[in-house]
């Protein structure tokens, strides 16, 4: 069974409140998603392995630590996942970025894939799939299947807000994928929106309707 982490850091919770607030405009929404994504990246990388290295400080030689092991790939699910990329890259500037384009059919709520472009070495990377919303879970589930079909073996899923239904689907289909959230909300409504949620993440991020 995959692990579920809900980040309780006060800065993440504080900023999520303003992200959820419907009076927050596009410019501020974008900035807040960027900031929360960076804070979540800080938490998600907590267990990266370190190795020793020797350097010269201005004073002496010193044995210190650097990150070792697998390189990272960030995989936003288009569109809304794009809003999380820059915040993560601020902390992990050498990460490669792959894109999975999916939209949710408004009638069936089923995801439709329209684009995929990935780094060539995804099988060697620790991949962080990012999307602000995990609602029915259909989009994240399909995106992860697509990545696995192309050789990915080490995948984490990071979302700002999730519904229990989405978490359950991803955990059932992908017991090897740990899930990292800013908040686990109450439920989905009849239109498949997360309650209380934040509304339509793509529209709020890009100012569309
Ligand atoms: C939103 C969101 C997720 C998906 C979540 O995207 O960014 O990708 O819905 O819903 P699910 O868990 O039920 O699949 P949307 O389909 O609205 O596309 P967009 O990002 O292009 O607006
Ligand atoms: N997609 C969104 O953007 N918001 C939701 O609440 C559910 C799916």
Task: Summarize this structure briefly.
With 209 residues, the chain is of the alpha/beta class. The chain has helices at 10-20, 26-44, 82-91, 138-149, 164-173, 201-206, and strands at residues 4-6, 50-56, 61-67, 71-78, 96-97, 99-104, 111-117, 125-130, 133-134, 155-162, 178-184, 187-188, 194-195. Helix content is 33%, strand content 32%.
Fold and architecture overview:
With 209 residues, this protein is α/β, with parallel strands linked by helices. Helices cover 33% and strands 32% of the residues. It contains 6 helices and 13 strands. It has helices at 10-20, 26-44, 82-91, 138-149, 164-173, 201-206; strands spanning 4-6, 50-56, 61-67, 71-78, 96-97, 99-104, 111-117, 125-130, 133-134, 155-162, 178-184, 187-188, 194-195. Strands 1, 4, 5, 6, 7, 8, 9, 10 and 11 form a 9-stranded mixed sheet that branches. A hairpin with a 4-residue loop joins strand 2 and strand 3 (61-67). Helix 1 runs antiparallel to helix 2 and helix 2 (26-44) packs across helix 3. The termini are far apart. The model has no long low-confidence stretch (mean pLDDT 96). The site of uracil (URA) has 9 residues, from helix 6.
């Amino acid at each position: 069974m995959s692990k579920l982490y809900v980040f309780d850091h006060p800065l993440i919770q504080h900023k999520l409140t303003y992200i959820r607030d419907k009076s927050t405009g596009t410019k501020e929404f974008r900035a807040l998603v960027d900031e929360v994504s960076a804070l979540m990246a800080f938490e998600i990388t907590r267990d990266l392995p370190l190795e020793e290295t020797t350097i010269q400080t201005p004073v002496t030689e010193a044995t210190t630590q650097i990150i070792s092991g697998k390189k990272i790939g960030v995989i936003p699910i288009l569109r809304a996942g794009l809003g999380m990329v820059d915040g993560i890259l601020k902390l992990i500037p050498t990460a490669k970025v792959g894109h999975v384009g999916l939209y949710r059919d408004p009638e069936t709520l089923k995801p439709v894939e329209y684009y995929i472009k990935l780094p060539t070495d995804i099988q060697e990377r620790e991949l962080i799939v990012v999307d602000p919303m995990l609602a029915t879970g259909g989009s994240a589930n399909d995106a992860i299947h697509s990545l696995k079909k192309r050789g990915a073996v080490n995948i984490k899923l990071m979302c700002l807000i999730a519904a229990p239904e989405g978490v359950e689907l991803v955990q059932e289909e992908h017991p090897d994928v740990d899930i990292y959230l800013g908040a686990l909300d109450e439920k989905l409504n009849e239109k498949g929106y997360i309650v209380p949620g934040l509304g339509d993440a793509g529209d709020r991020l890009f100012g569309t309707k």
